[in-house]
Amino acid sequence: MEMKKEYEVVWNNFISLLKNRIAIVSINSWFKNCSIYEIKDEELDGKKIKIITIKASSDYIKEALKKRYLDIIEELMENILGKQCVINFILPNEITNINEAVDKHNVINSGSKNDITVDNTQVINNYEKNINNYENNNILEKYTFDNFIIGESNRLAHTASISVAEQPGRLYNPFFIHGKSGLGKTHLMHAIGNYIIKNSNKRVLYVTSEQFITDFTNINMKKSTDYIQEFKDKYRNIDVLMIDDIQFLEGADKTQREFFHTFNNLYDLNKQIIISSDRSPDDLKLLEERLRTRFSWGLTVNIYPPELELKKKIVKNKLRGQALANMVSEDVIEYIASNSENDVRHIEGAVTRLYAYSAIMNQQDIDLKFANEALKDYLKKSVYMDSNISKIQKAVADYYNITVKDLKSKKRSANINFPRQIAIYLCRNYTNESFPKIGLEFGNRNHSTIIHACDKIKNDLKENKKLAEVLKEIKDSIN
Ligand code: ADP
Ligand code: MG
Questions:
Q1: Which residues of the chain have pLDDT under 50?
Q2: Going by CA atoms, what residue is nearest to atom 10 of ligand 1?
Q3: Which of 19, 86, 386, 443 has the smallest C-beta neighbourhood within 10 Å, fewest atoms?
Q4: Domains of the chain: residue spans and CATH
């Protein structure tokens, strides 16, 4: 059903305002297939208001919009329409039901939503459908597309996963996701599963390859026809099969053979098969050739290690909603992101530790120094490590016959300030450390002080030929 022209104008207006507020990917995920079904005027306590009914493409989308975006939809619609707005949602199947009911009874729809008859059997069917769908499928509800954070390194895997979830068995079959541990493969598989369960009555089954091996070994041990039937029911009487970490099937030759038959059976019936692995199909050397060939029939996507930006987003997301979130400075986020491993669990673990430490120490203000202290055993390197910075500091202090402690102190007398500026300049130019880190190493001085020191020495060097020699001498003394 097409949207009325005037609704279309409101909707387009709404989407363009929304672009300033939330990420484009979120708009594409949640709002793309929605439209305005109806806008009605009503009176509430003598005030004229608008009742806007948004058509959501699925129940899943509807719930997400209600849960996450209701406030923003209301706010932007009020901006556009200039009146207080109340937002309702409607699903495509409810619209058909309304039209059928209208046809059947040949009544004129008075426009009030109380007149809408919804077919009760449909509701019951949906209910039963969902019960069946959640039975024994091993899908974890906590992993959804909603809480998967997207960056360059996982964008393709995420987009392809959504396509598979929307049209299981039709687009990419099999769908093969590979990447190192902790990059979100399992998360994406469950997200696909959750999406399919919510939006269709397809039967989904998620298993790890260990589970598959165990099930297969059991039928061989027990050898009763009951078990064989049970196995077949479990693995063939489904619409979507996901096998996680298929690399563990390497070496399990008999199980591979059975998996081959299961694969063929499902594939021939256009059932969706989703596989994950820590390696690409080509690198699964111990897997039968014919399986590897089959894996490459569909779509293979790689999840790459997260880039710095994505790591920062993950840190920020983990901080979100926590009481101390506002106490954590941008420096700290950068510090965690650039020093944690690529495994997303490790990144999230750093944030958890930071919080725990701040609770123990009863410290509210989480700055770089504090974070460094809290995470020094956890992150792969720490700013206090015996770095080049400390070598430079030592060399400068020796040259000017002062102490490293002086360099880090608050003292501002010329005999200390100038060497300090030299040391800062050398750190900036001869190490890869960032301004915040250098600042931290020089008595927790802020960015601007560090930048100023570097500029100052740079200018001095232009006029003072002797200074270049001094710098060279200091550098040479660093071993
Ligand atoms: P893999 O299966 O690739 O080893 P997982 O899917 O188990 O990795 O991910 C490890 C943990 O990191 C899970 O808690 C998962 O929710 C989280 N995670 C991984 N990638 C993301 C992401 N892009 N956004 C949010 N959480 C993520
Ligand atoms: Mg996994």
A1: 100-134, 382-386
A2: 182
A3: 386
A4: 5-122 (3.30.300.180), 155-302 (3.40.50.300), 308-379 (1.10.8.60), 387-477 (1.10.1750.10)
